[in-house]
Design a protein that fits this description.
The complex is a heterodimer of chains A (439) and B (231). Chain A has 439 residues and is of the alpha+beta class. Chain A is built from 15 helices and 12 strands. Chain A has helices spanning 2-10, 13-36, 42-51, 53-88, 101-108, 121-128, 155-162, 232-238, 275-285, 295-338, 340-348, 353-394, 404-420, 422-429, 433-438; strands at 93-96, 133-138, 140-145, 148-153, 167-168, 176-179, 190-191, 194-195, 211-216, 228-231, 267-272, 291-293. In chain B, strands 6-7-8-3-9-10 form a 6-stranded mixed β-sheet, with helices on both faces. A 4-stranded antiparallel β-sheet of chain B has the order 2-1-4-5. In chain B, helix 4 packs antiparallel against helix 5 and helix 5 (150-162) packs parallel to helix 6 (180-197). Classes of the chains: A alpha+beta (439), B alpha/beta (231). Chain A: The chain crosses the membrane at residues 20-40, 52-73, 312-335, 356-389, 409-429.
C-alpha cells in the first residue's frame, strides 16, 4: 500500500489528474466494453433516439442541468476563492486599530466602505521608521467618483500594487490622481470626488476640490482596478484636515509624515524586506493598541468557515444529480416499454437476451454521455457568466474555469450512471417476449 | 444471389400448447411437412393458428410433444440455442411488418447485422440488398421505412426474413394489412420463394388467394388441424 502511495506521490500532477480521470471512468467504460462485446447496436440506438426525440431532449437537458449545477458550483466556488486570494496577494501585512480583522481586511483590501477606527500619527511613525519595514502605506477613503472609490495612499504603494504604470506618470502633488486599470476616468481628466459611496454619495460636498488624472495603473485583478488613487494628503485636504506635513514643506507629498499633523489612517499596509520579516512585524505589532494580521490568513479562516457551506452545496449538487439520474432511469424503463415490441421482434428473429440488454444500455449511455457533455459545457458557461457578474459587482477578478476537478466530477457521474443504466437494460430483458410481440 | 439453403422437413408429434391458465391453445397429434414445400394454415380467429406458428418457431415452449426441424428437436434446445436456431434457420414475417420506422429499408432488412457475429455481417447486408432488389425496392434502400406503402413495407419485412438465408420461412398473416393488389403481389412473391428457392414455407393466413398458391392447406379449429388439403 505504501509503495502504491509512493508511486502515486511520485507522479507529476498532470499524470495524477489523468490517472484519476481514467480511474473514475473505468467502471463505466468496463461496463460498456462488457455489455457491447460482439454487438453493433448503434443503428437501433439511433432509431430509439429518433423515435423518442422529445423525451430524449428532456432527459438530456435534465442530465445537463444537474451536471451543470455540480460543475458550476465547484468551478465558481474555486474561482471566487482564487480570485479573492489573488486580490489580496499584494497585501503582505495589515496593521489596523483593534477591532474586526475581517472588517479591516474588507476595507483595506477589497475597498468595502466601512467605519473603522483610526491609527494615530504616532503609531504610523513608529511603524514607518521601523528598520525592518520597507513599505508602510497609510490609506484613506470615504470619497468616490462615478461609483469608483477614491483612495488616498502613497506613491510607493501604487508602485508596489501594480508595478510600472500602464500609461502616464505617478501623481506628484496632492491634486493629482492615478486611475486604476478600469476606473471611469482617463489620463488627463479632471474630476471632483463625491463624499461617500453609492446612492448616499454627496456629489457637491467637495465642490472645487478637483483632481487631475496623470496616469493609469496596470490591472491587478483586485477591486483597486476600479479605484482612483490619489495622494493621501489630497484626501485629508479635501476633508479640511491637516495633510501630514508642515506648511514649510510646501507641496511635498508622501512620507515621512509629521506625527502631530497626521489625521489618522484606518490601516497601514506594511511590507518587510523578506517573508520572515513580515512574521516578525506581525508578532511585534499585534498588541493591545494595534492589530497586525495577514490578509491571506484571514481569508483562509473565512474560506475554512465557508468550507462547511461549500461541502453542503456540493452534497446538494450530488444529491440533485443522483435524483435526476434515478428519475431518468425510471423514465427510460417506461420508454423502453414503448419500444418493447421492437425489442421483442429482435428476440423473435434471433437476437440474444444480452443483445437486447446491450441496446437498452447503449441507449441510456448515449443519453447520459450527451447530457454529461452538455452539462460540462453548460456548467462552464454558467460559471463564466456568474464570474463576470461577481467581477462586475465586487471588482475581484473571478475566473471560473473548468479544470480536472470538474472533468473528474463528471467522469465519476458518468461512470456511476452507466453502471446504474444496467437496471433499465435488465428490466427490458425480463419482459414477456410473446406478449410484447402481440401488443 | 447465392444458392439457397435446402428447406428443412418439419415433423410435429403430440404437440400440446397451453395458455398460462392451463387452457389448451393448440393440440396437434401429427404433422409432417416435406422440405421445400409450402403450407397454408387457415381457420377462424382463436383456432390456434398463430399459437402453432409460434410453437413451430420456438417462440413458445409446448407443454408436451415435439417440433422437429430436419434433425433438430426444438425441445432439446436451451433458450440460447433456440434463439440461435431461430436466427440461423428461420425467417419470420409478421402481419404488421414490425419494422423500425426510423431506419432505412436496407437497415431494416439487414437488422440482424447488429447481433450477428462480425464475420457474417457484410454477407447478410449484401443478401438483404439483393432481396430488396428482387422484391422491387432496390433503389430505395436508404429511404426510411415509414415512407413506404403497406405493401412495400411488408416486402422489406420479407427481405429481412430472407437476409440470413434461412431454410424455413414462417409467416403470420402476411397479407392481412395489405390491399388486394399488394396482397396478391406478396402472395406471388411468397409462393415463388418456396417454389424457386426450395425453402420450407408455413403461412398462417385468412387469404384464400395466398392459400391457393401454396402446396398444401391445413385448416384448424379449436386448436386442432381438422382438414389437410394437398394441391
Amino acid at each position: 500500500m505504501n509503495s502504491v502511495g509512493a508511486l502515486w506521490s511520485g507522479l507529476p500532477v498532470l499524470m495524477q489528474d489523468v490517472a484519476m480521470l481514467v480511474l473514475l471512468l473505468a467502471p463505466g467504460l468496463m461496463t460498456g466494453l462488457l455489455v457491447l462485446r460482439g454487438f453493433a447496436p448503434w443503428q437501433l440506438v439511433r432509431a430509439m433516439l429518433r423515435r423518442f426525440r422529445g423525451a430524449n431532449a428532456v432527459f438530456v437537458a435534465l442530465i445537463a442541468v444537474s451536471v451543470a449545477i455540480g460543475v458550476g458550483l465547484t468551478a465558481q466556488e474555486r474561482g471566487l476563492r482564487q480570485g479573492s486570494a489573488r486580490a489580496a496577494e499584494r497585501f503582505d501585512l495589515i496593521l489596523a486599530a483593534p477591532g474586526s480583522e475581517i472588517t479591516a481586511m474588507l476595507a483595506a483590501v477589497y475597498l468595502q466602505p466601512s467605519d473603522v477606527p483610526l491609527l494615530t500619527g504616532a503609531q504610523y511613525t513608529e511603524v514607518a521608521t521601523d528598520p525592518d519595514v520597507v513599505l508602510a502605506a497609510p490609506i484613506a477613503f470615504g470619497d468616490s467618483y462615478q461609483g469608483a472609490p477614491v483612495v488616498g495612499t502613497i506613491a510607493d504603494f501604487v508602485a508596489h500594487l501594480a508595478g510600472d504604470l500602464a500609461e502616464g506618470r505617478m501623481f506628484a502633488i496632492s491634486t493629482e490622481a492615478v486611475a486604476g486599470a478600469y476606473a471611469p476616468v482617463a489620463t488627463g481628466d479632471r474630476f471632483t470626488p463625491a463624499h461617500g459611496h453609492g446612492a448616499a454619495a454627496e456629489a457637491d460636498a467637495h465642490a472645487g476640490a478637483d483632481y487631475v488624472v496623470t496616469g493609469r495603473m496596470a490591472p491587478t485583478g483586485s477591486p483597486w482596478d476600479r479605484a482612483i488613487l490619489v495622494p493621501i494628503e489630497g484626501v485629508w485636504e479635501v476633508h479640511g484636515l491637516a495633510n501630514g506635513h508642515a506648511l514649510s514643506e510646501g507641496e511635498r507629498i508622501g512620507p515621512p509624515f509629521d506625527a502631530d499633523l497626521f489625521p489618522g489612517t484606518p490601516a497601514i499596509l506594511v511590507r518587510a524586506e523578506a517573508l520572515w520579516g513580515n512574521y516578525a512585524l506581525q508578532s511585534r505589532y499585534a498588541r493591545p493598541d494595534m492589530m497586525a494580521f495577514f490578509p491571506g490568513t484571514v481569508l483562509a479562516q473565512m474560506h475554512g468557515l465557508m468550507r462547511d457551506v461549500r461541502e453542503a452545496m456540493s452534497l446538494l449538487a450530488v444529491v440533485t444529480q443522483v435524483l435526476v439520474t434515478v428519475s431518468i432511469l425510471a423514465g427510460l424503463v417506461i420508454l423502453t416499454r414503448i419500444f418493447a415490441r421492437g425489442l421483442a421482434l429482435l428476440r423473435a428473429i434471433g437476437a440474444s437476451r444480452r443483445f437486447v440488454f446491450a441496446v437498452v444500455w447503449s441507449y441510456s449511455a448515449a443519453l447520459i454521455a450527451a447530457g454529461s457533455l452538455a452539462g460540462l459545457a453548460l456548467g462552464w458557461l454558467a460559471a463564466s457568466a456568474f464570474s463576470a457578474i461577481i467581477t462586475a459587482r465586487t471588482d475581484i477578478l473571478v475566473t471560473a474555469t473548468v479544470t480536472w476537478a470538474e472533468a473528474q466530477l463528471v467522469a465519476g457521474f458518468v461512470s456511476l450512471t452507466l453502471v446504474l443504466a444496467l437496471v433499465p437494460a435488465l428490466a427490458a430483458t425480463r419482459r414477456q417476449r410473446l406478449a410484447d410481440l402481440r401488443s | 444471389m447465392a444458392e439457397p439453403k435446402a428447406g428443412l422437413a418439419l415433423s410435429v408429434t403430440d404437440l400440446i400448447v397451453l395458455a398460462p391458465g392451463g387452457r389448451r391453445l393448440a393440440e396437434v397429434a401429427a404433422l409432417q411437412v416435406a422440405p421445400g414445400s409450402s403450407v397454408a394454415i387457415r381457420g377462424p380467429s382463436g383456432a390456434g393458428k398463430t399459437t402453432l406458428l409460434h410453437a413451430l418457431s420456438g417462440l413458445v415452449r409446448p407443454a408436451s410433444g415435439g417440433v422437429v426441424w430436419g434433425e433438430t428437436d426444438l425441445a432439446t434446445l436451451s433458450d440460447t440455442a433456440l434463439t440461435r436456431f431461430r436466427r440461423d434457420r428461420i425467417g419470420l414475417i409478421f402481419q404488421d411488418f414490425l419494422l423500425f420506422e426510423e431506419l432505412g429499408a436496407l437497415d431494416n432488412a439487414a437488422i440482424a447485422t447488429a447481433f450477428l457475429p462480425r464475420a457474417q455481417r457484410s454477407a447478410l447486408r449484401h443478401r438483404a440488398g439483393e432481396w430488396l432488389e428482387r422484391l422491387g425496392l432496390g433503389q430505395d434502400g436508404a429511404r426510411r421505412a415509414d415512407s413506404f406503402s403497406g405493401g412495400e413495407r411488408q416486402r422489406i419485412a420479407v427481405a429481412r426474413a430472407l437476409a440470413n438465408d434461412p431454410p424455413v420461412i414462417l409467416a403470420d398473416e402476411p397479407t392481412a394489412s395489405l390491399d388486394r393488389a399488394n396482397a396478391d403481389r406478396l402472395a406471388e412473391d411468397l409462393a415463388a420463394l418456396s417454389r424457386d428457392t426450395g425453402r420450407t414455407l408455413v403461412v398462417v393466413t385468412h387469404d384464400m388467394t395466398l392459400a391457393a398458391r401454396l402446396d398444401r392447406v391445413l385448416t384448424m379449429a379449436e386448436g386442432r388441424i381438422v382438414e389437410d388439403t394437398h394441391e
